[in-house]
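Checked the freezer inventory, then went back to the computational side. Two predictions to log before the end of the day. The first one is the construct we discussed on Monday; recording sequence and tokens without edits.
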Amino acid sequence: MRSLKLVLFSTIVLNSCDPFVSDFSQAGDAIMYEASDIPDSISVYDGGPIKVVTWNIRFGSGRFPFFGDSCGDDVIADQKHINTIMQQIADTLNMIDADIVLLQEVDVSSKRTGYLDQVQYLLDNTYYNYACYASMWKADFVPTDGIGKMNTGNAILSKYELTDAERIQLRLRTDQDDLVQYFYLRRNILKVKIPSLSQGGRDFFAVDIHATAFATDDTKEKHIEQYSEVLSDIVVENGDFVSGGDLNSVPPGSAIDFCESDKCDNEVCDDDFENNDAYQGSYFAHFDGEPDILLSLYNTYSPAISNNDGSTLLPENHTHAPSTSMLNDSTYTKHDRKLDYLFTNGSWQQGSGYTHQAAWELSDHMPVSAIYTPASGGR
């Protein structure tokens, strides 16, 4: 009977005139935002250094034991908890005081986070004036585990005006059946122009990406290839860029096997560890060869944290921890590997690359910041 119900539901969904899920087959445009109050004096670039930060904020949920990525079994977060974490994220961004912020996993209208528009919230509670947003998972209703309505994706925040925002669709996974893929994420690259930072006839862009995490086919490699192509096109067109995000890939030279079960050692995972999606994902079961995926980016562009001396492998530069490391667990792991990066075709101020591990309680990823020096050298 259960199989029959699933078949009937699948038939209704896949043949509906009004689909539950946005597949973005017709749209490539991002959504533009502005803060409620924009001071004229701040929105004009003054010629100073340009600080950039990337951060996967995990939909403002902190170390919430979400079923999808942390071996937990919860779906809907407490609204008070979300409000507290979002305020702490805003406070952290104000403390870092970057000019450009690349964010991943930002909810704008999701049941799990009380339908809070987190892009607008951050604009109205930080020093940032402009933003753009590109959804990677937009559904009126997701039946799995009571998720309900979902809209989450990438966002770029800036002190300076943004134009020409573009949502670039990344390839879908090929290791899923039709029904799962229908309700699954449509990951993307978010690219935007910042006119006030364009100098000497060179357009200036910010580029944000959130690559696949759990694919067991070649999707991750394809995402990194698409990302490299977007950056290459900017260079070919005589432009400058700062870019980064959650690449869900370990750095070149990594030699750690994350398949050990003690990386995910709570009761939920111990019961069915090898069938857990996080275990089967490519930075676990498909770890062999993964450190080579980012080599072309490191060889072609300037990373915020150099890998020449193995710096990306040092614990102080790890950006991710399993969110099973709950705050009330004395054996928690604050961070265990690097998955988050910044690149540019210019250069970064020497020694400015920094991983803000003090923010570890606010997400399962930590922010990475650096100060940009333009390729043209003429600012």
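The second is the one RB wanted added to the comparison set:
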Amino acid sequence: MVPNSQLATAAFSNCSQPNEFWRDDFEIVLPYDVTYRQAERILLSAVAQVPASANAPRQPGNGRP
């Protein structure tokens, strides 16, 4: 356990995942008339435009595209 005061004042690295891929949480808002299939195509197409993302494993932890 690390006290919040240490986290707020010190630099640290998370070395528990030794690969180059990581995930983050963010919100994407699409119009209500976009179906889930359209949304999936839109998002996968956008990710495929970023070379590093296109090479990332699709499922976390299994290392397979």
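For RB: Residues 61-65 have pLDDT under 50 and may be disordered. DSSP finds three helices and no strands in the chain. Let me know if you want it refolded.
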